[in-house]
Amino acid sequence: MEAADYAELISSTSGQNKLDLVVNLKNKDGAIFSIRPPFKPKEIAQFHDLLLSYNLNAQFGEEHDFLIMFSANKTQVGGVFWKMIDEQTAHIEKIAIHEKFLNCGLGKMLMNEISQRIKKGGAKFLTVGFMKMEYFQRFGFESDESIAGLIKKL
Known about the structure:
Blueprint: E1 6-11, E2 19-26, E3 32-36, H1 41-53, E4 64-71, E5 76-86, E6 89-97, H2 106-120, E7 125-128, H3 133-137, E8 142-144, E9 149-153
Parallel strand pairs: 6-7
Antiparallel strand pairs: 1-2, 2-3, 3-4, 4-5, 5-6, 7-9, 8-9
């Protein structure tokens, strides 16, 4: 599904006055999922636990941005984090979907959403390391040895 079925502006409950977008999408089975930035440190910690469940080590820093995916009952089912390398390039650090939700289109939804948001933010390129090359090539990433990874023109 390319476009959101529903979107709204949300604000953080942590007292920050930053508005952001939550997008509700239906997967291929018709279930509704939401994608949004995390509001609370607990949500980032849960995403970190998900990465560790796949033996994916992650070091989060202030330079990172996140999108977290939730099921209709507000259970965290996946996420992605990235950082801007320069004004034109964002680099995906890691992406993960909980094993209970694999193979139902959530990874595709998350990849489409991060690509759209980064492009709207003015970036022209999205990069990722040489992890899971076949997966990222399905989304238009191509090998580029000059960056020691894969790159996609947005």
